[in-house]
Design brief:
Helix content is 42%, strand content 18%. The protein is of the alpha/beta class. The chain has one domain: Flavodoxin domain (Rossmann fold), CATH 3.40.50. Helix 2 links the parallel strand 1 and strand 2. Helix 2 packs across helix 7. The radius of gyration is 16 Å and the shape is globular. Flavin mononucleotide (FMN) binds next to helix 2, strand 3 and strand 5.
Amino acid sequence: MNDQSASLKRPLIVGIGGTTRAGSSCERLVAAVLAAAAELGADTRLFDGAALAALPHYAPDHPGRTPGQLALVDAVRQADGMVIGSPSYHGGVSGLVKNAVDLLDDLRMDARTYLDGRAVGLVVVAAGWQAGGVTLTGLRGTIHALRGWPTPLGISVNNMAQKPFDADGMLVDADILTQVKAQAVQLMRFARPAA
Ligand SMILES: Cc1cc2nc3c(=O)[nH]c(=O)nc-3n(C[C@H](O)[C@H](O)[C@H](O)COP(=O)(O)O)c2cc1C
């Protein structure tokens, strides 16, 4: 591939996030960041709450992998950037999301180890102000451990005080929409520095 065709390649942004709940707000927000990135020229793939719930518990002593586990690891391996969204459960990342993140240990022997060189947008939804900040900080620490680059803008939503979505699931809160678009811009700048 020459330099020109390399610069024309559409970045792949992979999203992980959601809960098992229908209408999961953190899943919708991850999807919204992916949609904003797609508008900026990205290809995207979302591993939603249902996909995460189908993953077995990560077990370091069991090297066998299900098709779902292989699909997630392979997508992240190809990714030029990521979005990870979690609810705050008891002041931290949910087990469902952390289970998927732990599976990324399968990238440790890659030439591009773990999330090396990739920006990661983070989205947290809580039912209060305090847990959102704490969970976002914890998630940032996890991404640093995986050598990823959390975007400067992390998104923390308090769904008791804010109403991000209308009855049809459309993101209607103008402030949150601004943050979603800003995070997508930061992801794309990192994934495609010339953009
Ligand atoms: C098991 C559990 C623990 C929770 N713990 C907290 C918490 O510590 N602080 C908080 O603000 N909200 C807490 N919540 C509320 C969720 O963070 C909030 O409802 C979030 O929107 C759920 O995400 P979802 O809409 O994607 O399902 C908890 C919810 C559950 C089910």
